[in-house]
Amino acid sequence: MTVSGLGGLASVGDRITLLRRDRTEIPAEIIGFSGVTARAMAFGSLDGIGSGSEARFPLFISPKAPKPGGTLRVSDAWVGRIIDPLGRPIDGKGPLPPGDIARPVRASPPEATLRARLGPRIDLGVRTMNLFTTCREGQRLGLFAGSGVGKSTLMSMLARNTACDVAVISLVGERGREVREFVEDDLGPEGLARSVVVVATSDSPPLMRREAAYAALTVAEYFSDAGKSTLLLMDSVTRFCQALREIGLSMGEPPATRGYPPSVFAELPRLLERAGPGIVQPDGTAGQISALFSVLVEGDDQNEPIADAVRGILDGHIVMDRRIAESGRYPAIDVLRSLSRTVPGCNSADENALTQRARAILAVYAEMADMIRLGAYKPGADPDVDEAIQLRPAIEQILSQGKHECARLPDCFAALRDALAETPIPEEGAAG
């Protein structure tokens, strides 16, 4: 919509208030200009808004006025609550006590040269990730998966099991009926008790879906600055980009790559770089936001534009495979296509040797899988293949984990060590 009368007063990102015919208010944001006429987009339904409707904007801007993009007054009392992207409670538990400081939602990432280094490795509670994509405090990982592969279930496991003080969960464009199922069944009371959940469902306006990502980063930054070990889970970056696409196209931006305008790929690093290590304080401490961003891979194409852009920004990627899910092994993580850029630096030499050997065994079996199924491979022809056939079932058993099972990091390496210690049984007639 267009708003006149703001020439020389407003700027992109400023918040205004629209009044319906019944005088109820709708928050909106200025997203651009056409000459002296402002273009605005609402955070809610435009029912009751017509030509000549009133728009309100503060004429006198004081230093304490909200900055462009809005603010949130986060406090410790937000833990255990479910909120919308504007910081309003939607869990029926009463109002949210505001914090003392208004934090800008559209903040810049920390200065690169002032950021701390990554912290020690963090226990994620998921065996496959602890072993093959070991993560450090402040690291950012991408979770790449198609629809229906178990992505939300894996994220709920991380929210419950990761060794952190606070988890901030952003559900961007989530199906409305699945929100309660995720909170009550997947996350559970234990997970919710230490989490802040930011929700914008798929029927929300694009500004609300975009804001869900920014609000989650703002909440995570508050707890990180307070010295708490913070885990950020965002599901999903793809829907955040789809919201940006709607906003950009409504402004007249040309579609560049698969319908995404250039502004989407400019905004992605500004969002993702806000997570990670914070600025080193005078006392030598620094806040850390360990983050996992899910990417809904369209058509199971791991090289589609959003997946490709996110993979180049983050510190590692975890690939979930539909064929593994269909075989009944969950979480359906493809070990051979997943990696963490902090490995091998955060593990011991013995642990690295274990995981490298397990990867090699899985790679050998994957290469010969078709011949083994067809019976074209004869036992004894290749000792590496014989070893892979013998040890792969034990490794696959380790990779399988129930959604309510928690696997601590030292136990994961101990289980893998025991599995690889099994001696392959020579086939009858083979040289011994």
TrEMBL record:
Cited Gene3D superfamilies: 3.40.50.12240
Keywords tagged on the record: ATP-binding, Cytoplasm, Nucleotide-binding, Protein transport, Translocase, Transport
Pfam family of the protein (one): ATP-synt_ab
Superkingdom as given in the UniProt entry: Bacteria
Localization, UniProt: Cytoplasm
Keyword RNA-binding: no
Domain AAA+ ATPase residues, every copy: 137-325
Catalytic reaction annotation: ATP + H2O + cellular proteinSide 1 = ADP + phosphate + cellular proteinSide 2
Name of the protein described by the UniProt record: Flagellum-specific ATP synthase
